[in-house]
């Protein structure tokens, strides 16, 4: 598990006789943004609470930089958490809220002042230090809440529904910020908003009724759509091509392929097999369909 920031194995939680989460697995690497996707009540917030140490698991374990989170609570210092309801005191200023968060992390004096100034600069909050949090827009309040989560310099950032309730401009501004933060730490993001997943995440894990029902790589999978003028009888021949991970027929000679080799190599191999390549275009996963299909399979239906 070298270079792993966060590792969850067979994680589960039962509460008052009800199973909130079961059999959850996760590996989070530096510089990676992983999304938890699911409808309301799917278990996203419970999962984040377990991974951040806010809840103790009924089964399984969580490791942070190789240490068991619940046997070594000091490992929480590597985690920054933004809960669904930002923990801001409206009657306190931005600086006072940040100072309070820093004090909870054991900071004081020059260390606290330095950390507060650094995180304000990083999140473009320098001009708002004396502003009461009750006077902030919701988008700016989310920035302050993220600053609270980052003030101690964690390697892992956990965000629960960060863009919920924001207008489109505020949501996009926050996504741009999260994308920048993802360059320096690993981020776990829970949301039911597909735009968050599509713009920010390298991969998504789909939850349904407390179960991990699907996982999909979004970035780095070289997803393409091709149209063949002389398509094969079935997908087996395409699936057996070196460099092709998955094949999904889409009708009229169109196929969606996930590749694990360069696109140029695919073109050469298709030509070598005598298949006329009419079109090759980049593709994106349809997360709405992926979510619906995963839930349908879980319920025993047909996607």
Structure description:
- By secondary structure, the protein is an alpha/beta fold.
- It has helices at residues 44-52, 94-104, 109-122, 138-150, 168-181, 194-200, 236-239, 263-272, 287-298; strands at residues 6-15, 18-28, 33-37, 59-64, 67-68, 79-82, 156-160, 186-191, 203-208, 211-217, 223-228, 244-251, 254-259, 277-282.
- The two termini are 35 Å apart.
- The mean pLDDT is 90.
- It has two domains: 6-217, P-loop containing nucleotide triphosphate hydrolases (Rossmann fold), CATH 3.40.50; 223-284, Alpha-Beta Plaits.
- The strands form three sheets. Strands 6-7-8-3-9-10 form a six-stranded mixed beta sheet, with helices on both faces.
What multimeric state do the chains show?
Answer: single chain
CATH topology of the largest domain: Rossmann fold
- What structural class do the secondary elements suggest? alpha/beta
The strands making up the biggest β-sheet line up spatially as: 6-7-8-3-9-10
Main features:
303 residues, alpha/beta, Rossmann fold, Alpha-Beta Plaits, six-stranded mixed β-sheet, four-stranded antiparallel β-sheet, 9 helices, 14 strands, 29% strand, elongated
List the helices and strands and how they pair.
Blueprint: E1 6-15, E2 18-28, E3 33-37, H1 44-52, E4 59-64, E5 67-68, E6 79-82, H2 94-104, H3 109-122, H4 138-150, E7 156-160, H5 168-181, E8 186-191, H6 194-200, E9 203-208, E10 211-217, E11 223-228, H7 236-239, E12 244-251, E13 254-259, H8 263-272, E14 277-282, H9 287-298
Parallel strand pairs: 3-8, 3-9, 6-7, 7-8
Antiparallel strand pairs: 1-2, 1-4, 4-5, 9-10, 11-13, 11-14, 12-13
Helix pairs in contact: 2-3, 2-4, 4-5
